[in-house]
Design a protein that fits this description.
Length: 73
């Protein structure tokens, strides 16, 4: 059985921010999220839900973010 990836778009923002490698991927592809003054309010929201609520992240960038996060293991 294939091992599940640690991080996907279904990971919470908090899970991503707490991991240096995942945070670096997020910072590269979606600059400013991790340093936003209200980021603490969104730590429990999944990346997919957050992206849907914002509506400002294009589908190609989301797909790249998901692929890069999954590649972390």
């Amino acid at each position: 059985m294939a091992e599940q990836p640690r991080f996907t778009l279904d990971s919470t923002l908090g899970e991503i921010l707490d991991d240096p490698q995942a945070r670096a991927v997020l910072d590269e592809l979606v600059p400013g999220v991790s340093t936003h003054s209200l980021v603490f309010l969104a730590r429990g929201i999944t990346l997919a839900d957050g992206a849907a609520r914002l509506g400002s992240i294009d589908p190609e960038r989301l797909a790249e973010l998901d692929a890069r996060l999954r590649a972390l293991g």
